[in-house]
Amino acid sequence: MAKAISRDDPRPLYKQVKTHILNTLYGDGMPTHAKIASERELVDQLGVSRITIRQAMKELVLEGHLQAQPGKGFYATGRPRRGYELELLRSFTETALAHGKTPGSTLLTAETTVPPPAIVEGLGLTARQPAISLKRLRLLDGKPVAISHDWIPAELAPDLLALDWRTGNRSLYAELRTRYGIVPHHGQTLLSAALAGKEEATLLRLERPAAVLTVEQIAYDTAERPINMTYTVHEPATYPLRLEQG
């Protein structure tokens, strides 16, 4: 099991604490009105400061996931969350688990090839430089919700395709981080809408004409090097996205 808090994770510590608590609330099936661990217990469990714990708790209360009872602690509200967080630095697998869902995937294609011009430009490659192409149908509780197509410069992860990508909850970011020491630090996201093509409608079980949400993302490491470019088609009814601000 991955550690709840990692100093190598580019997300702020309080965000990691928040994800840990959300996993406890929804992934572990905590009943409504159940009391969660105290601030002191979380400090001991996660190895972070009380200020960090309080910042995470404050956001969870404001978002309606926790209720604070002075002198007693924090309690689960059982309030369902609307939409799935769109976070460049968190994988589909992590997001699904944080919502109490079972992530899965069906491998569509996996190959090393010369990418199209838009990918070459986005990843800063030369015209004939190869990239790893990984295309998967993403599932939540067995239901198709998105089609993701990842592109990674082949020189950064030469043996990536030797892994079994048919495994239901294998995380690309986790593999890049643990096997190759590649950690996404920041990036950019472009949101758009489109009509589903024939293949997309078939895979997502949509009746055409049907609207889909498209998300194009480029992730960079701390040296400003492009490490991954992703194009995802989302089925908005079953996988709505939410942007958190502040």
From TrEMBL:
Tell me where in this chain the HTH gntR-type domain is found.
Answer: 11-79
Tell me which InterPro entries the record gives: Bact_HTH_transcr_reg, Chorismate_lyase_/UTRA_dom_sf, Tscrpt_reg_HTH_GntR, UTRA, WH-like_DNA-bd_sf, WH_DNA-bd_sf
Keywords on record:
DNA-binding, Transcription, Transcription regulation
Q: What is this protein called?
A: GntR family transcriptional regulator
